[in-house]
Every structure is written in structure tokens, then in C-alpha cells.
């Protein structure tokens, strides 16, 4: 599998403004042709570290990328899954770019347009991943989302996603995230349709028990390649949620 995300010109301020004033689906349809030139695309170094972390957890036959966007996570699945890789997203524009950018000589990649809150799959996957999409779900939607992921995994299947260490209170990333979320709440209070994207609505302290209630056994695996904070703790980790084996 090869992924082509060469140099492209990023979106203009006007294009970003139009996107931000649209619905989530329409906004990503508009942004799709230039998405890979934005900071929102998951960096290669994160993808590479996730591949290394997933290797010992396999082998995997079939993998599903939740909210696949332009297909960055599909590349990860292509390296660790032997038989079948599926990317699912509700933005037709993002899927069009993914189809063009990701090519597989063995034709094991499929693209499906669907709302991940109602996944149209049987329990046929050994691995599900997601990269950078959870800010698009309100906290009240997470239990249903996790239940949907659990429903499409085979017994013993793995749901994995990277998560960054929370910024320290008072640091510039802390204030940047706080400011972005505040601006987004104001925007959604005065403008319709809503554009749901928040950075501070996915705390691991809440997500961990929600995953357990959905039927997962959860552990954290440090992503050592992404470095450590001054106190020695990792900057990022892989959340590994395994579906319990059913006897």
C-alpha cells in the first residue's frame, strides 16, 4: 500500500472560514482537497509509532479505521492487517480524496460512507483504530460510539487510538485549547448548523470507564518514539481496548 500526500497548498483563510461556518459533514467536504496540507492531518511520526505499538498485539486479519478522513490511519492498518482494511467516514469529499491517495496492489482496501454512530458492519474486524476524530463527538455520544465499535469487533478484537498527555494548566497549549473550545461554544450558540469540534471533551479519566462499560478491557501503552515530558512521563500513549473473549 502506498499513500500519496505530497506537498499541496493549504486552505486559505476564507476557505477555513467557510468551512467553520458549515456543518461538520459539509465543512469536511469543502476542506477535503487540501486537508492533507493542514496541521489537522495526523503526522507520520505518530502513525509510525502506532504501527510499532500494534505489531506485538497481532496478528490481525481485518481492520477498520473509524472516521478515516483522507486515509492516514488506513496506512497503519495496511501494515498490520493481512487480509482486509476498511475506512469509514461520513464525508463523501474526504472519502474521494482517500480513494485517490491510497492505492493497494492487492485491493484489500475498501471505503464506506457511513455515520460511525450506526456502523453498518457485522462483528468481522480484529482491529479498529481512530486518529484525531473524537473531538467531533459530544460526551453524551461517546458511550454509543464505543458500543458501536465493540459491536463490529470479533471476540478478543482490539480498539486502539493514540492520546496525548494533557497540557499542564497555565501552559500555552492549555490556554490555546481552552480558547478554541470557548470560541467554538460561542459559535455554536449563535450559528446554525453546529460544527462540533472540541479539544477538551475527551479526558481519559472519563473515557476509560466508558470503554469498560462498553465491554472492553483497557490498558495504556506508551508511545516512546514521541518523546517524554520534563518529568519523564510519555508525551503520548496508545489506548488499547480489547473486546473480552466470549466463551
Automatic annotation (TrEMBL):
**An annotated Gene Ontology molecular function:** methyltransferase activity
Q: InterPro entries under this entry?
A: Methyltransf_25 (IPR041698), SAM-dependent_MTases_sf (IPR029063)
Membrane-spanning ranges: none
Does this entry carry the keyword Nucleus? no
Recorded superkingdom: Bacteria
What GO biological process terms are annotated to this protein in UniProt?
methylation
- Domain Methyltransferase: from-to ranges: 64-157
List the SUPFAM superfamilies hit by this protein, alphabetically.
S-adenosyl-L-methionine-dependent methyltransferases
Q: Which UniProt keywords apply?
A: Methyltransferase, Transferase
* UniProt xrefs under PANTHER family: METHYLTRANSFERASE (PTHR43591), RHODANESE DOMAIN-CONTAINING PROTEIN (PTHR43591:SF110)
Task: State what protein this is by name.
Answer: Class I SAM-dependent methyltransferase
Amino acid at each position: 500500500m502506498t499513500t500519496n500526500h505530497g506537498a499541496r497548498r493549504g486552505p486559505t483563510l476564507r476557505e477555513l472560514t467557510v468551512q467553520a461556518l458549515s456543518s461538520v459533514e459539509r465543512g469536511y467536504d469543502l476542506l477535503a482537497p487540501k486537508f492533507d496540507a493542514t496541521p489537522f492531518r495526523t503526522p507520520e511520526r505518530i502513525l509510525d509509532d502506532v504501527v510499532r505499538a500494534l505489531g506485538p498485539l497481532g496478528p490481525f486479519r481485518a481492520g477498520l479505521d473509524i472516521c478515516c478522513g483522507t486515509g492516514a490511519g488506513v496506512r497503519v492498518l495496511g501494515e498490520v492487517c493481512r487480509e482486509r482494511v476498511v475506512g469509514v467516514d461520513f464525508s463523501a469529499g474526504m472519502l474521494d480524496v482517500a480513494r485517490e491517495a491510497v492505492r493497494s496492489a492487492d485491493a484489500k482496501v475498501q471505503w464506506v460512507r457511513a455515520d460511525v454512530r450506526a456502523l453498518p458492519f457485522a462483528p468481522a474486524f480484529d482491529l479498529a483504530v481512530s486518529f484525531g476524530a473524537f473531538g467531533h463527538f459530544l460526551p453524551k455520544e461517546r458511550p454509543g460510539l464505543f458500543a458501536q465499535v465493540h459491536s463490529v469487533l470479533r471476540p478478543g478484537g482490539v480498539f486502539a487510538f493514540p492520546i496525548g498527555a494533557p497540557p499542564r494548566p497555565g501552559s500555552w497549549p492549555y490556554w490555546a485549547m481552552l480558547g478554541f473550545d470557548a470560541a467554538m461554544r460561542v459559535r455554536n450558540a449563535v450559528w446554525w448548523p453546529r460544527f462540533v469540534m472540541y479539544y477538551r471533551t475527551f479526558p481519559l479519566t472519563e473515557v476509560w470507564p466508558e470503554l469498560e462499560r462498553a465491554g472492553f478491557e483497557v490498558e495504556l501503552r506508551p508511545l516512546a518514539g514521541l518523546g517524554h515530558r520534563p518529568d519523564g512521563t510519555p508525551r503520548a500513549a496508545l489506548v488499547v481496548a480489547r473486546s473480552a473473549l466470549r466463551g
